[in-house]
Amino acid sequence: MANRKATRIIALADALAARRVLHLKDAAALLGVSEMTIRRDIADNPGLFGYLGGHIVPAADIDADAPYDLAREADSHATAKREACVHAARHIRPDETIFIDCGTTLEYLVDLIPENYSITAVCYSLNVADRLTRRPNARIVMLGGVYHPSSASFSGNSGLETLNHLGINVAFLSAAGVDPARGATCVHFHEVPVKQKVISLARESYLVVDKSKIGKLKPAFFAPLTAFRAVITEGGEAALSVLEAPSG
Amino acid sequence: MANRKATRIIALADALAARRVLHLKDAAALLGVSEMTIRRDIADNPGLFGYLGGHIVPAADIDADAPYDLAREADSHATAKREACVHAARHIRPDETIFIDCGTTLEYLVDLIPENYSITAVCYSLNVADRLTRRPNARIVMLGGVYHPSSASFSGNSGLETLNHLGINVAFLSAAGVDPARGATCVHFHEVPVKQKVISLARESYLVVDKSKIGKLKPAFFAPLTAFRAVITEGGEAALSVLEAPSG
DNA sequence: CATCATTTGTGAGAAATATCACAAATGGGG
DNA sequence: CCCCATTTGTGATATTTCTCACAAATGATG
């Protein structure tokens, strides 16, 4: 009795895994039951199914529960971040290797890589890697290690070791704080070794942040501003000497 | 003129990035325009926005274009795969370290890890890693390297090197072909070194496949069946000597 | 095989969304 | 400052989805 229902739920989940979206009507037809039954199945399994105006989707796709902590901060300064990345993207050249730091800021950079450029992108976070997989012409190198949910990134000796085998033309770094005197800082200490090694190995490094980060100081220091060719914000490339706290 | 529209589109994309789902009505209120305008914005940017019965979602969430090639095969034998994983999950013990192979089969295993078990999971593919991030009690170790879209996995020397530093209690391997005589084979050669090293290091290894794989032979050989404690299918654990081609 | 709890189907009215045509507003160019 | 192309708003109508109550069917149990 409950057997029939359980089987149907599994079949529905399977169909959804394949299709990503399923119309209520189609689902009913597919499983040979009424729309009402499908409605109830969905309502009974909120962890499995999401439902949007007649369409069934995987719960994961619309789940407000953040898969990583990142999502909570995703909205703040999104426009500024995107604009900063537009400026940063001008330093990407075809057939070169770039490094993309973790965090939400540089996620936008991935979508701004020109379609026809074939590049190699080095990353160490899931959100950046996910975005990169959608780009047909990108070769992706992931630095592995132990996962840190706070930044959706990985860290470990083997990841650092991998960097020894790579030639990085341009590195795009991000920071949670940019202090004119102290330099670039971030929140999580595990990111520091990766950032530092990348900066030391890459031909050119750029710090990409929205202006809200300027003037802030966070616990983990990773580089003086002189380590970067430029600091790139939504206003463009700032000469290092001109940096100042945001007006607001 | 087109300026206003472009600004609004970006704002909408930003709001969506934060919320994952946005009701048409809310979007209209948020941006201070009519629902009709939002409708048109969405229709004009099919690459950016998806739309399902009154709700705006990121296009990526409902895009039929597979992020990885995996998705195309995702539906086939899904129920059998899930059932095989149910049997496999009985070998997971709390506070231990498990290895999860790439492919769609073992993705299901992640969801079957008991909620209250705190485990360490070693993986080398994006789809498995993604699922693991949704589990609060899992420590995740990712083997890095160069990305292979065909299996959404990474391979490289540093990933192999990482394995030397790990103690794996139970390894769950998958295969595209299981031949009683020849053993376990897969399609992609780059997976072979990882699988072999894992088998050699783990205390126990299990081969988890749906029955459709039995009798098949694929290009890349990675282990004889004697390397595994058992072959686990939707029918349960098969004694190695009893393996035979599926009846259908 | 009769009983009971659960699951499933149906239909009608209520609510929401979709579509369209036309009017109003906006911004750039002469 | 006027004109024109584009963008935006409004309201009516058509379509779809939602909710609910009740009837029918199902499967387990004694």
Topology:
Two copies of one chain form a homodimer.
Chain A: H1 2-19, E1 22-23, H2 24-31, H3 35-44, E2 49-52, E3 55-58, H4 59-62, H5 70-73, H6 78-89, E4 97-100, H7 107-111, E5 119-123, H8 126-133, E6 138-142, E7 145-148, E8 153-155, H9 157-163, E9 170-173, E10 177-179, E11 183-186, H10 191-201, E12 204-208, E13 220-223, E14 230-233, E15 236-238
Parallel strand pairs in A: 4-5, 4-9, 5-6, 9-12, 12-14
Antiparallel strand pairs in A: 1-3, 2-3, 7-8, 10-11, 11-13, 14-15
The structure holds a DNA duplex (30 and 30 nucleotides).
Estimated helix fraction of chain A: 25-40%
In CATH, the topology of the largest domain in chain A is named: Rossmann fold
The overall pLDDT average of chain A reads 84
User: What is the CATH architecture term of the largest domain in chain A?
Assistant: 3-Layer(aba) Sandwich
Q: Order of strands across the biggest sheet of chain A?
A: 6-5-4-9-12-14-15
Number of strands of chain A: 15
Rg of chain A over CA atoms, rounded to whole Å, is: 22 Å
**Which strand-content bin applies to the residues of chain A?**
15-25%
The N- and C-terminal alpha carbons of chain A lie at a distance of 64 Å
What are the low-pLDDT stretches of chain A, counting only 5+ consecutive residues below 50? Answer: 65-74, 244-248
Q: What is the chains' assembly state?
A: homodimer
The total count of helices of chain A amounts to 10
* Shape label of chain A: elongated
- One letter per element, helices H and strands E, the order of chain A comes to HEHHEEHHHEHEHEEEHEEEHEEEE
Biggest interface and which pair forms it?
A-B, 54 and 53 residues
- Given helix and strand content, the structural type of chain A is alpha/beta
Please write the CATH class name of the largest domain in chain A: Alpha Beta
Most strands sheet of chain A:
7 strands, mixed
How many distinct folded domains of chain A?
Answer: 2
